[in-house]
Structure formats: C-alpha cells, structure tokens
User: What shape does this take?
Amino acid sequence: MKVYIDGKWVPEKDARVSVFDHGLLYGDGVFEGIRSYNSHVFKLNEHIDRLYESANSIMLKIPLSKPAMRRAVIQTLKINHLENAYIRLVVTRGKGDLGLDPRKCRRATTIIITDRIKLYPKALYENGLSLITVPTQRNIPEALNPQIKSLNYLNNILAKIEANLAGAVEAIMLTAQGYVAECTGENIFIIKKGELYTPPCWLGALRGITREAIILIARRLRIPCAEQVLTRHDLFNAHEMFLTGTAAEVVPVVQVDGRSIGTGRPGPVTGLLRREFRRMTQTEGVPIK
Ligand code: PMP
Assistant: This one.
C-alpha cells in the first residue's frame, strides 16, 4: 500500500514523519476518517470541509487547497487500486522544536493512509450492542471543543479503556453536567414514540457526518427528528437506540448500564434507517475514476 506524504506517494514502510513533528509530540493536528464504496468516496466534500474547519479552529494552515486535497485522496485510492476503502486523512502542525510553540513549525505535514475496509462482525448489527457509561467525561467545549476532530484523542481513549475493563464494546461519555454527549467514536440516537432524538453538538459532541446523513434520511422519511439534551434516564427508557459513525455506519444498541432498551432487540425504525443509510452509501459519492 502506498501512503501520501506531502505531495509524494511512498511505500508504507518508507512512510515516516519526524520525531519533532508536533502531531507526535503534542497531538497538535487534525484528522478525518472517510470511506469509499464501490469506487465512490462517500461524503468526501463534507469530510474535507470538516477537516478545514477543525484546522481553522486551531489556526493550522493546510498547505493544500480543498480541490487539491480532494484530488490527493482520489489519487491515493487509484494508486492503491482500492474500491471499498477506509481513508485516514491527517494534517499535523509539522516539524518544530521540543517547545509547544506552533510558530516554530514552518509547514504542516499532510498524510493520506488508505486501507481495505475491515467491517465489524455481522452479529454486532444483528444482536445489537451492550454499552456502559464511563467515569471519564467528554472534554468540555470551553477547554477543547469536541467538534474539533483533533489528533488529541486521549479523552476518548480513556473512556475506551474503561469500557474495555468492563467488558463493553463501547462507552457512553457524558458531559461535565451529566448529560449524554457521544460514544468514543460514534454519535448517539434514541427513538421514543416513533420520534428520533440526538444530543445537540454544542453540548460536547462531534458533528458526525453519518449523524447528519441520518437526520436527512429521517426528514425524507417524515420521521420527526430533534436535537435534544438527553440524560441516562432518557436512554434507559428509549424504545430504540443506535450509534452512527463512518466506520460503524448505523449500529443498534440493546442495553445500557444493564437496562434493556425497548424490547432488548434491535428495533424496526433503527432497521429502516440502517437500510436507507446503506442505500445512500451505494448511490452517492464522488467517483474515483
Ligand atoms: N464522535 C467521535 C468522537 C468520532 O471520532 C466520530 C468519528 N469516528 C464520530 C463521532 C462519528 O462521526 P462520523 O459520522 O463523521 O464518522
């Protein structure tokens, strides 16, 4: 597999960054996870827009224009002959010195890694997930806004460790006030009396691109959908629940902190939204050719 680094495609084993890169030293940088389906990059423009917004927020100048970045992503897939892929786009602050000061980093490092997509086990979708809420709270937006998809994922990693220790596949992260924020790499939705609810992003969650797609699909299907502040009580008493993310797509949740959600089986509205989302992935996207 060839990796794109700063305008060149190099073999995986030669793909290296400096030990002085602030992405490595301080997690100073931004990233995106993107997928291609049947030689079409799904929501490419949305992912590129979010990458540039994250970079703008941390005052990181991406050396490529957006059209050049789009071309670089597509070219990387072409070079690697990938049709169904996972794409990791990374822009770090670049090489600096051992101090924090980003002004010492003269040029950002741009990396595009592609891989064959590794799908989650089918049983996960058929049986649904059992989740737990974890003690580690989501970063407060005033300290490090979760809407910035930064290379500093320690907050999420701590939550993942807590889920691992408890034997759960994923962790529900709450805000400092105890409201539902998101999982370590997915957004959260519940269904109650046929209506869809998801926490507002300002509360402390990434504006997921799959989340936005589900909101759009719900509108098209005339399923009422609202952003609402949710507590664990709301999750426990939901009729259905699911998570959304680029890698996971739409995954049903059947248990939270030992409480069964709805019937304890993946629900019909979740199934419908999942099918419609999969249809969207097969019919939309920027062609690789
Ligand atoms: N929340 C977090 C913290 C994430 O890292 C991600 C992406 N993996 C998501 C939500 C889901 O976002 P998207 O649908 O854009 O992949």
In short: The helical segments are 22-26, 44-57, 66-79, 122-127, 154-166, 209-220, 232-236, 268-283.
